[in-house]
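Inputs:
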Amino acid sequence: MSGVAAATCVPEIVRMSTASRLDTVEGAASSLIILLPGIFGILPDTMDFKLGQFFSPGDVIVDPDPINTDPQKMAESFAEAVRRTGETGKPCKIQFYPIQLGGNLWRQYSLIFDEWEVKVQINEIVKTSQTPIPGTALKKNRLGVAKLPFPLKARTNEIDWMNSSIRKLRHLLKGPDAPPGPVKPSTLDILSGTQFEMKLENDGKIFFNWLPWHRTWSHSYVLGILLSIPVFLIAFLSGLYNWWIYGLAAILGFTVHITEDMTGHIGGSLLWPIHKTRSEGFEMFKASDPRTNFSINYTAILLILWNVDMYSIQIIPIPWWQYWTTFWLVPLGIYFWFVGKKKQELRLQDKMEQQEEPDGTGDLVVD
Amino acid sequence: MSTVLIYTLIGTLAGTILCMIPSLHIYNVMGFALLLYFNFKDLIPFEGMAPLFMSMMVAFAFINTIPMTFLAAADESAGATILPTLDMVMAGRGRDAAILTGMGVFFGGVLLVILSPFFYVVFPYVYKIIRTHLHWVIGLVIVFYVMSEWPKGAGRGDTTWKRFRDGWRNLGAGILTFTLSAIAGIILLTKPLAPADRSFQNIMPIFLGFFAFPSIIQMYLSEFKLPIQHKSRFVNAGWSDFSASLPAGLAGGLMAMTVPAVTIGIAAVFASHFTNHRAIQTTSYQPPKVPGTAVHLHTPEIYWQQERVFVIAGGIMKMMYYIGAFLLMFVLTDITPSGMGRGGLNVLLKPIFTPESGDYAIMCGVILFSSSLSMLALFGLTEVMIWLVPKLNVKILYAFITVLLFGILFFMGGGWMAIAVSLVTTCIGSIPVFFTCRRSHCMAVLLVPIMLSSSGNMDAIARFLGLL
């Protein structure tokens, strides 16, 4: 959505995209050029989840038996991957698969990491909506514990020039990083599994990297430019008017996606294949934060409408400041106020619920 | 006034009876509505026509919830509601599922009336801007819809190809369904089965094939048995569920009522990406509560609320899509002097019906009146269904429905050709059923031809396919 919004900032793209039946807009050609930033905007994640992950096989596979799930064996597999990495010095990937019990039923499990220990805990059965079904936890054999032959760490010390530049910039933007706390457990339940790559570092500790195939080669500005070359070529060879603008639209979609991703925790391999390391992100937002997602999408829609009108039919009867105040500032102000209040309410509710676990039945209040 | 009331009553009643037939798509109901009109047009006064059609659609929005919930008869809109409702039915909470959907639909009707100032002051500008850029707006819908379906397989296998094949089961099926539906749409638009004045006959076999017959096949193959349903004086939900459903319902509803060929199955995908706020309160790791565990994974109530929000928002979208799109036909402003209606019924009605200023208020009244009647009917019919379904042999019922639908197709849809077309589209519509991809891929039958026509590329593609 943001890539498309960025493309509409180019007046020529909007004019070309206007329906050709409108003779009031110069250059109106009913072009589908705006699909390019749309396609290229989704492309980085498409390449990761529909392609890249299948090219990243695990060296150690954990595919638990749905009937006789053995958490001890799962924990020992993790320890085995750590041992292999520590002893050989070569990276080792461990792939965990989900436990599917039916069309809509999955057995959830958590991986709990400590510096010298890993625990695997089998939880309740969950639906595809990730809501647990109360009372479905196993009665016995829920926990597996394995000691690790080498210590684990979740953040790498071996940072290159790009990572250190991003860290510096991040510290400038949001102050120093919080002191490292305990590593958050990882929980697996539906659809796809997860993968960690173990890497022995100079301090003798094993850095375990979550989803090593995600946001690597696919999230590179260089790749974006390379992929748009065929678009430039096809447009040129087809003799299209303003042929260069097609490639530009594609690059815009791709780069806006990568830049937006950089605001999160996992960054990207911005200069792959020239520089292959995956950098950290600016850690300004969490990718899962609905407030960011909603406000960015909403802003993009408003920007698209404004640009499309301004560069084509010009029927919006109010000045820009009135448009952005009425439809952006005020609604988003109300939204953030409301969501903030709701979040506080939920936190309170959550504290109470932790004493009495919710069971999904709610309160019988709608008569 | 009495004419409006009488035809609202007739429309609601006719819609209620018609929509108890499992698996009918909204476009099939429109076809029936027009057949009704063509057969009785001398009896129906001009001022009764719009209330009749409007109330039929209102009844559809409410009552098709019943076969969809209790007979697992999914139409395309099922994407917006069916997942949780089927789950609720299997847990004995079918009454909750049906009534909550109905309440969502009712809420959507009230919203439509409340949004009237928005429809008159702001929406005409949005409509005008989108109309001049419709081809790429639909194109982007297609791009996002196809590209945002992610692998459902975990990617198991000892070679890259095996992992890829496992992960791509649903994706490949989705792309195949989409492509075949798009080709079917291009063929049927280039070589229509029926003349323009009977164009709804083109739609009927296609949609029966895409949605009704695959659901029937699925029903035959499954061992569906309705579990005992709990009785309760209350609906298991809170009023806050309704406010939480509002963003998704509004976003999906407005999208479906604005962009042609975007149905609620498709709009729901966009709306859930756009408005899902579940992650505002995430799961947390607490000290263990049970011996033999290391942590207690606490799932907040908002996770369960999503199920109810999904159902209610689906109801709101149904109302905004089915009814809102038609209601916009009556919004006559300086920049939209012919209204802004969209959707099949709008297109089919335009040659025989012209809205006048003042009709909008009447239509709002019709929506509220018919919604109230339909909601009451939903309460009653839900009880009847819960009582009746365990006593019924569902397979015999579906055999009867199959014969009925084939009869309708043969006598009203265009004879053997219509049956042949429906068999072809049944094959296409069965792919999502058996490979668990999105059923709305079948909507490429309308999305692609509309995009191609509005961008001026239809003739070139038809020529390429040898159709011209």
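Chain B has 21 helices and two strands. Flag for discussion at group meeting.
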